[in-house]
Please model this.
Amino acid sequence: MSEYKLFSEFKLGDITLKNRVVMAPMTRSRAVEKNTANALIAEYYEQRSEAGLIITEGTSPSPNGLGYPRIPGLFNQQQVDGWRLVTEKVHEAGSKIFVQLMHTGAVGNVENLPEGAKVLSPSGLLVSGQMYVDGKGMQDHTVPSAMTTTEVKSTIQEYINAAKLAIEAGFDGVEIHGANGYLVEQFINPKANQRTDEYGGSIENRSRFAIEIAQGMADAIGKGKVGIRLSPFGVFNDMGEFEGIDEQFKYIAEAMNKIGIAYIHIVDHSHMGAPEVPQRVKDIIRNNFKGAYILSGGYNKERAENDLQANKGELVAFGVPFIANPDLVTRMKKDIALANPDQNTFYTPGVQGYTDYPKAD
Ligand SMILES: Cc1cc2nc3c(=O)[nH]c(=O)nc-3n(C[C@H](O)[C@H](O)[C@H](O)COP(=O)(O)O)c2cc1C
Model:
């Protein structure tokens, strides 16, 4: 199997990955105490350390970004200590780990937030659909308050501070969640961004939030430790196509290239019923960015190998397959059948459907 490119080493920014299999970021809602990672979360990631790189579940850089129940944060010392349990286990097991920084912005219910925190967004627009709240079930999203320019700037600082805390917690780097309709994409997409200050209006202005975060992180922790996830043409959380979308993603790719970040990670959820991400826009991003390109969405071993051989990307992320197959890399190497996960336990607290999936042997 060693001839497979998928199982070969790769140098990503400052680190060398033992293979090109990435564990995609997946929210699992097990941070039951004060939005802090814990020993159970450490065990879950340790079990999946065959991956060359693990990208954690979306983790908020701010109390305001904890829109979902039981998601972890990274803005205080307790959370740094919780995450250190995770990074130590993963490193002992021989893998590398980036934390995905996800501020939920308008996607959230205020009852999920800690005391004093608020649901914020670029323009205060209500997101359709509902949000789960423990003890109450599905509730409407909270109407967000439109961020002042001062709040935009302080939120950028929260991301940069979280990147510094990530290094303190032992992470190899950070991924900016610029996809799936959360705060960064709420700035990028004019459907959610109707601002008239320097963070809204033109392509340059709508990209500024993402770019200032990436630049600030690169300055604080090193450009080789920063990546970004993007979802052009994604429709989740009221996103979707808009005029000038190709130019917008070209501009962002060029800006990220100039900063010199380690990678761009593309979301493609067309296999889950989302609209096709046109190859044209994937090519625009790839052609304007010299760092690594992470493919994701509906991959299995053969498709991953084919796309790597065709030079469509350098790394391939697997999401759902990692849930029920902690030893996914071994299973792919040995062509062992994959187990199917129980969707009912994707976001429920506790070990069930989390750390209780066995390895094949
Ligand atoms: C339970 C679950 C939680 C997810 N949470 C996140 C998340 O926190 N951040 C993110 O960028 N994507 C998230 N995703 C999307 C995955 O990273 C990935 O893009 C998606 O599952 C498609 O890849 P796959 O076909 O290999 O599963 C999540 C997906 C699932 C199934």
Observations:
- The chain has one domain: 5-345.
- The CA atoms of residues 305 and 311 lie 10 Å apart.
- The longest strand covers residues 53-59.
- The mean pLDDT is 97.
